[in-house]
Design a protein that fits this description.
about 150 residues; alpha+beta; Cytidine Deaminase, domain 2; five-stranded mixed sheet; about 35% helix; about 25% strand; binds zinc ion
């Protein structure tokens, strides 16, 4: 299965996201080594601690069906109704969650509108860098264009 095909699964399930609080919809497609695809979307809840990320939904579905070997996961996200080609990588909680079930997995995602693949461990550093940029924006609004 190509990265583009796997991403299409993620985009399709993203439409099912329940995101009335953040208006941010995410979708993932998890490809197992057996060739099956398990999808997930974020499901927000009125009690924020009960909300579920798309990655956790997909892993829970796959594991509950007896899967234990995973090859790739495509992740996509953004504000509902917008073009979903902005940079999007799993949240730190999901990175930690997935690392309990895989030593490594290829993450297929958009970076600056380009479909790329990276390793799960690398997404942790990417996430830290994204968070650093957001913090810089908040503290130095005069320099938005430089970031
Ligand atoms: Zn998450």
């Amino acid at each position: 299965m190509t990265n583009e095909e796997l991403m299409e699964y993620a985009k399709r399930v993203q439409k099912n996201a329940i995101c009335q609080y953040t208006n941010t919809a995410t979708g993932v497609a998890l490809l197992t080594k057996s060739g099956k695809v398990y999808t997930g979307c974020n499901i927000e809840h009125s009690i924020s601690g009960l909300a579920t990320c798309a990655e956790k939904v997909a892993f829970a579905k796959a594991i509950s069906e007896g899967e234990s070997e995973f090859e790739k996961i495509a992740v996509v996200g953004g504000k509902r109704g917008q073009e979903y080609k902005s940079t999007w990588i799993p949240c730190m909680s999901c990175i930690q969650y997935m690392l309990d079930f895989v030593d490594d997995i290829i993450v297929v995602c958009y970076m600056d509108s380009k479909l790329v693949e990276t390793h799960l461990a690398d997404t942790m550093f990417m996430k830290l860098n994204v968070n650093r940029k957001i913090m810089m924006r908040k503290h130095d609004k005069d320099n938005w264009s430089k970031i």
